[in-house]
Design brief:
With 396 residues, the chain is α/β, with parallel strands linked by helices. It is built from 13 helices and 14 strands. The strands form three sheets. An eight-stranded mixed beta sheet has the order 2-9-8-7-6-3-4-5, sandwiched between helices. The chain has a four-stranded antiparallel beta sheet with strand order 10-11-14-13. A two-stranded parallel ribbon has the order 1-12. Strand 4 and strand 5 form a beta hairpin.
């Protein structure tokens, strides 16, 4: 019998990597793993407002099906209020379109902007999901570098060289995952100018925008918290409940569209058409959105306290004479360690898991351009984090 035919857009290697294989073996053997990759807030020992969350989902209004391509007005108004309250940005509800997740928001924007074979420019290092999201829409990702000189910045010369006739958009992740770097005010003008000159849309992934680490930023006015409100070029700002409210299981994301009036209106009409084809956002979470967004502050305080405390522990354990170094950050949930180059990143990750039962992510997962970087999650419960870091730094 001939082999089944599958789409070329699914041509990735599905075999587990060496780190995944070793982790499976360790867990099967019952080894006590110190997981320093924890990114799920619902399993990271935070106190959720359980009764209030359940009460929000009990609204009987959703029992009646009222399909709305862009999302229910009350839910969009709640997202608008979030921007005003959390980020000081005025985003009208009619500029907001709800999605089932930020990943789906990317998919809708890619469908809107790109034909098969077109390109989007995405930062490196960054979260590895872009290749999959773009590939599923037959769009090609072209990376542009972020450079580190004590702080992370866009390499604008390299970005400009990456633009081709098939480029359709520039993606910024603000703050970046995993570097934690925000776009700087000094970078915003050149970025807008490049996009306007080359007729590129700007896609801003802002899921971690609430998690500015004040104690890591000398001048808060120098960082750009959100790209909402930009009217010079077509702009799509993405976020969702997953990080804003620490509720990844309640699938709700959104797109806030900006840009020149006629262009923005055309984009919004087409996004609604795409969304209307799927109608993927569930009614219960839309009805609950005002309450859920209203609960975000309590959890965000816990997360920010955890992130700050763990980074303080990490920084305090790295002495001046240590062969390890900690890269600077401005926000988000992650920290980047530069490891001694006595091993490759992969070998470091494998060694730490095999010998110390400590799980970290190697830098090449995020397309760091050189060796040797390890990424750890500051969301990890404090006791696990402290012991895991102690074991890591004892290795050289």
């Amino acid at each position: 019998m001939p082999a089944p035919r599958f789409s070329n857009r699914l041509g990735w290697d599905l075999a587990p990597n060496r780190l995944t294989q070793l982790l499976d073996e360790k867990r099967s053997a019952g080894a006590p793993i110190l997981d320093l990759t924890e990114s799920n807030p619902t399993t990271a020992e935070f106190a959720y407002s359980r009764d209030e969350i359940l009460s929000a989902l009990a609204d009987p209004g959703w029992l009646r099906y009222q399909p709305s391509a862009a999302g229910l007005p009350a839910a969009r108004a709640a997202v608008s209020a979030y921007y005003a309250g959390a980020l000081g940005r005025q985003v009208a509800p009619d500029r907001i379109l709800l999605t089932a997740s930020t990943s789906e928001a990317y998919a809708l924007v890619f469908k809107l902007l790109a034909d098969p074979g077109d390109e989007v420019l995405a930062p490196s290092p960054s979260y590895p999901l872009f290749e999959y999201l773009a590939g599923l829409d037959c769009v090609r990702v072209v990376q542009y570098p972020l450079v580190y000189h004590g702080r992370w910045n866009i390499d604008f010369d390299a970005l400009a060289r990456s633009v081709t006739a098939r480029s359709r958009a520039v993606v910024v992740v603000n703050p970046n995952n995993p570097t934690g770097s925000f776009l700087k005010q000094s970078e915003l003008g050149p970025l807008i100018a490049l996009c306007r000159e080359r007729n590129l849309a700007l896609i801003s992934d802002e899921v971690f925008a609430d998690y500015l680490l004040d104690n890591q930023v000398d001048d808060k006015a120098a960082v750009v918290r959100s790209l909402t409100g930009i009217d010079e070029i077509l702009t799509f700002c993405l976020s969702g409940l997953s990080k804003v409210a620490g509720l990844p299981q309640l699938k709700l994301g959104w797109i806030a569209t900006g840009g020149p009036g006629p262009d923005r209106e055309k984009a919004s009409e087409r996004l609604e058409l795409i969304a209307d084809t799927y109608l993927s956002v569930s009614a219960p979470v839309q009805w609950a959105a005002p309450s859920l967004l209203g609960l975000r502050a309590q959890l965000q305080r816990q997360i920010l306290d955890r992130v700050r405390d763990n980074r303080r522990v990490l920084s305090g354990q790295i002495g001046a004479a240590s062969p390890w170094s900690l890269l600077s950050t401005e926000g988000g949930w992650y920290a980047v360690l530069e490891a001694p180059r006595i091993r490759t990143e992969e070998d470091w990750a494998l060694h730490l898991l095999a010998q110390e039962n400590v799980l970290v992510q190697p830098g090449f997962f995020f397309d760091f351009e050189r060796e040797a970087f390890l990424v750890v999650s500051l969301l990890t419960p404090e006791g696990v984090f402290r012991e895991g870091i102690r074991r890591i730094l004892a290795q050289a």
